[in-house]
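Q: Make up one entry.
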Amino acid sequence: SAQVAKLKQRFRLDHVVLVGDRGMITEARIESDLKPAGLDWITALRAPAIQALVTGGRLQMTLFDERNMAAITSPDFPGERLIVCRNPDLAAERRRKRLDLLDATERHLARIQVAVARSRDPLRGTAAIALKVGAVLDQHKMAKHFELDIADASFRFTRKQDAIDAEAATDGLYVIRTSLDATRLGDVDTVRSYKSLALVERAFRCLK
């Protein structure tokens, strides 16, 4: 906030809007820095927050029957505007990547299952089995989508299809979050401002 005040004074800025990604403009940053400094912001929601909007009925997929952008509100974000966008190409890519990772995880877990079940020199011990299973899950980052049953001389696994389907329901969706009123910056321009972060990232790469 001290740096913001310095910039406002140095460049004689009356109104400042900070545009940042989800890692930069966090809830804590908004409450402790941006609001006290009188700043507006444009950022995006993380996946759990998007899922909560779907679960709570605030974000309904019928919004996208004829368009790929819709503005909504939520009591979880009072005084703010949420602009929901859908990218069909991104949705298809995420589905493909998820299925590839699920299949790869399943293949590796099946090999461990065979090693546990074989008659000659079987893999034994809950800790030893869990260590190998953990290595597979760490590699593919799919732990949340599998139910595991590990014992001293047995190992079983199944997909958590309900969880997979719930995650897939939000494929291709991203939600822009802003404190700006629509009269100051419309939905399209707000989304464009957030996407302009790509130019900032490119500039940093050039500097490095």
Q: What stands out?
A: The mean pLDDT is 88.
